[in-house]
Design a protein that fits this description.
Radius of gyration: 25 Å
Shape: globular
Number of domains: 3
Strand order of the largest sheet: 11-9-13-18-15-16
Distance between the termini: 97 Å
CATH architecture of the largest domain: Sandwich
CATH class of the largest domain: Mainly Beta
Structural class: mainly beta
Strand content: 25-35%
CATH superfamily of the largest domain: Cupredoxins -  blue copper proteins
CATH topology of the largest domain: Immunoglobulin-like
Order of helices and strands: HHEEEEEEEEEEEEEEEEEEEE
Largest sheet: 6 strands, mixed
Amino acid sequence: MKTIQAAQASVVSIALLAIASAAAAAGLVACGKYPDSQEHGAGHGGEDSIRASNAELTGAGYKPAFLKPGYKTQDVSFDIKETVVEIGNGYKYRALTYDGSFPAKTLVVEQGTLVRIRVNNQDSVPRSLHTHVVKYKPESDGTSATSTPAGSARYYFWEVTDTTPPGFYPFHDHEDIGEGAQDRGLVGMLNIVKKGERANAGFGILLHDIDPEFLFATGGSPVATGGGAGHGGGGHGGGGAAMGSMPAHLINGRFGDAPESRFTLKKGSKIRLGVVNLGTDIHTFHPHGNFFRGADGLANDNLEIQPGGYRTVELDGEAAGEWMYHCHVPGHPEGGMWSRYVVK
């Protein structure tokens, strides 16, 4: 009889332990340390937020999880704030920027580097910083669970290891479940290069669609959005606001043939080009006169990039001259998505 009672007591103890363990696990989820896929990104610093350590918040004492000993460090400071920028064709844009630039200046990072990014959010709502391909801990994921509250600052850590593939990758706001303030301008490119190859980093082409609500004519008056931005008639030039098409589809934050979107290479050489689409539409990269080669080794001159997509290619500079390049989607060149390059 005593043996039976002891066995029953043992079963009860195991059951109570299981209940306690489940409750403890539920508590961890409830406090947001390990948010599940449904909770992740549901709020701003509430129950679903990952509790970042002092190292993640202040940058002091951070220990990499993926880098080998002997890694380098690269410090970056981003002030998120509203900035009025000139985008060409007689227009200004009331953008949100990471560093006062639209888009943010491209970050060139060598393999084997810890990138320490201090984000100071001067906006009135939470903002974040998310990237692709590089490794990071959950605290640096850059969604709403790890966003930077309004009026606050925190660190994000990107670990570019020795095996991180070289190439151009996007970084951007990822607040809420959706894509945050990308159309306002919180976008940029991360250019990963092999050790010692910063001098041959190549050229980044960021394709971007903007929100006409924040578009202004040079004189300061808001722009009427009727008729569809960027799909009307008109020229490609840099005339006044009444001339040409309304900017809607930009390269490197500029309308048409601007210095920020031009590149040059020597005849007979190659140039590494990163094409990143952080717009809301499908875009293509079509260079006139010269070609790049796909994974199959075949020559190509029109690369389709889905929203959020990115590709790094090498353009062969075989034909000398000044050449146009543009998006081949109808209406997009008229909206500003075109520029030039030179082979000399």
